[in-house]
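Why this split exists: single-chain examples teach little about how molecules sit against one another. For that reason, every record in the complexes split bundles all components of an assembly together and asks for one structure covering all of them. Below is a record exactly as it appears in the raw files.
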Amino acid sequence: MRTCLVVDDSRVIRKVAGRIIEDMGFEVAEAGDGMEALAWCRAAMPDTIILDWNMPVMNGIEFLKALRAEPEGRAPNVIMCSVENEPARILEALEAGADEFIMKPFDGEIILSKLSIARAQR
Amino acid sequence: MTPEDAEALRILVQARSGVMVNPANTYQIETRLGPIARREGAGGIGELIGVIRTGRDERLMWAVTEAMVCTETWFFRDVEPFDRLKHEVLPTLSASRDRPIRLWSASCATGQEAWSMAMCVTEARGLRSDARIELFASDLSEAGLQKAQSGLYTQFEAQRGLPIRMLLRYFEKQDEMWQVRSELSRAVRWRRINLLSDLTPLGEMDVIFCRNTLAQFDKNSRRRVLEQFRAMLAEDGYLFLGAAERADDIEGFFPTSLNGLYRRRPAQQVQAA
């Protein structure tokens, strides 16, 4: 089964996104910040990561740079999911290694669409 | 809204557009006609349809028809037809054309299909350096066309089907909306067209996209539109329908390896069939 790690400091967002992604056939794990997510990835690298930007302890960009430096860290499709919606900020996330970007708020159609796009680009 | 009102609506929309409205789908009818009823100062949908049933208000009858036929869509819907267009169809046509390649998004709704085609044209590789491409887009709905032509989409709409790098390349952010950049917007010519009307003035087309539209049409209207498409499509042209839509019951179209993509059978084969 494909695995997806949902990283967001909002429990509500983790639950909402997690439920949508589960319905798409993923096994879903959750992390509340970048540090926790990094520990998850070192234990078992997921196929896909839905990643918030602004989080305590370690934010999304810091996590992304750390992840991509890991031995298997290029493997997961990373979809940044943030309230940031300025082109310069989105570009920053892509340059840090994100495959796709979702501007919050989102719905199931957008997540489905972005997962397909990210998978097709690999 | 009474059953008689719903039936009157069904007859009106089918006669003017070929689209079959399900009278039992009261939610859809109320959602689409509610704004018109409010704008017209009608007491409700029933009163609005009552005015229509008098047959005196031509403008209102078209407004109601257009509201009932406007469909939801998104960028690069189903992906594969656009990949085919970019990687296969455009380079193939480019190699055999001394005149402009003519593309038509026949039922473009709010424009996402036409803009997706425009992006394919921009990104297509392997075209002759002197290749010229004309892209037309049309719809029955004036409101849909206005939105399409404005190129202005909400954040939700801009994220459905559109890869983020293409959003950044072809759109610019305006407040909380996303606007098609002017260099892309110049690539599309827009026009209100009823597919049931005579389409011959549009001239020959090399590629017609009419996806997820004809499935809503009654049998005779669908056949009439497809026969017009066949007549105006170049001998080596391409017809893109929705993946579940078929044209192989129309003499002169044959299917390809992609569901919904049809080619025009050469004339001599049509005569021999």
